Amino acid sequence: MVIVLKELSDYCLAWSKLDISPTDLVLDVGSGHKPLARANILCDKFFCDDTERRGTLLVDRPVVVGDALFLPFKDRSIGYVYTSHMIEHIPDPERCLRELSRVARKGCVNAPSKAWEKMAGGVPSHLWFVRVDTGKLVLEEKEEPIVDTVLKELALRMYARDSYKPFYWRHRDLLEVAYEWKEEINYEIVRRSGERQGSNWIKSQELECSATSEPVRRESIRQAVASLLGLGVRMLRSRAALPRLVEILACPFCLGHMEEVGAEAIACLKCKRKYPVRRGTPFMLRELATSGRNYTIMPENGRSAKTELMESA
Question: Cβ(110)–Cβ(32) under 8 Å?
């Protein structure tokens, strides 16, 4: 019970250490099963695939299904953007960081530290080691999982005795990396080839198919409690004017303004592409875009995300 209460307390108060003002419109990118309590809007690419998170996607406030590499939001439409334990999964972090600084005026990138990676025994879906060096966010591409057998054994024993989370909270500054920024993100990418890429470099990104479904999610009891507490946080501490989603959304292809087309679609005024809307949730993925001729963009694997969307509904 003590652990559960501490976890809920941490969920409610963690945001208060960040440079978030009461009037900031806050976006959580890669929100997953445990979004920032203060976030007004959530964004996640994977609506039903929980492979790389520890629970089902929490949907308790406005949600946009979108790709962190092609964020479907207007330039500087967000006061504060937050992302936690997401950047280490991204194959093209350069583009992701550029997108975060495009849509928001300030924000925070949170990620597991190298010490955490050693304790975890090497997580295959984590592609980068993350650290902060003299005010710069540094991402170093993994060559292979780095495992410290002593630390891993210690972590396993703590898990068995339910003492891992208290240890994590006490030493969070060693096990997590938190990088806050304003106006732009100062970063460096270190690749396995020894090639270093700075803030002005962007790599082309292949389209990735995302299976999605109707936005109906089941919450655990703990998620339901956290959801209510988070609502209380936003009601008490947020004075941000919450716009209609269509007012801040932008086409992930051309960044054109969007307009609603009935209750089941949203369209770009510039390139005329349309995106599906399910029960008020816009699915703003490039793979799901259709033109006026109802043409579906196909990913390289030959299977359209639109087909998967319909099959999973």
Answer: no
pLDDT at 123 over 70: yes
**Is the pLDDT reported for residue 301 higher than 60?**
no
Tokens 């591409």 appear where? 141
pLDDT band at 33 (very low <50, low <70, confident <90, very high): confident
Helix-then-strand count for the chain, H and E: 9, 14
- CA 213 to each of CA 42, 228, 283: distance values in angstroms, whole numbers, following the listed order: 17, 25, 10
52-83 residue pLDDT tens: 666 677 788 999 999 999 999 999 999 999 99
Q: Nearest-CA neighbor of 252 among 33, 102, 91?
A: 102
- Judge whether 18 and 180 are in contact, CB under 8 Å: yes
The mean predicted confidence, pLDDT, of the chain is 79
* Burial class (CB within 10 angstroms; exposed 0-12, middle 13-18, buried 19+) of 194: exposed
Helix axes 2-13, 221-237, angle to 10 degrees: 30
Q: Quick one: tokens of 288?
A: 């799901």
Instruction: Give residue 250's identity as a one-letter amino acid code.
Output: A
Secondary structure of residue 249 in the 3-state scheme? strand
pLDDT surpassing 50 at residue 97: yes
Indicate the pTM of the whole model.
0.79
Task: Answer whether 164's CB lies under 8 Å from 175's CB.
Answer: no
The DSSP code sequence of 16-74 is: GGS---TT--EEEET-TTS--TT-SEEEES-SS--TTSSSPPP-SS-EEEEBTTB--B-
Confidence of residue 210 (pLDDT cuts 50, 70, 90): very low
Q: Are 88 and 97 in contact (CB under 8 A)?
A: no
Residue 224 to residues 36, 53, 217: CA-CA distances in angstroms?
14, 17, 11
- Say which residue, 117 or 84, is predicted with more confidence: 84
What DSSP element (H or E) covers 73? none
Could you identify the residue written with the tokens 């898990």?
159
Beta-bridged to residue 141, according to DSSP, are 128
User: DSSP for 120-134?
Assistant: HT--TT--EEEEEET
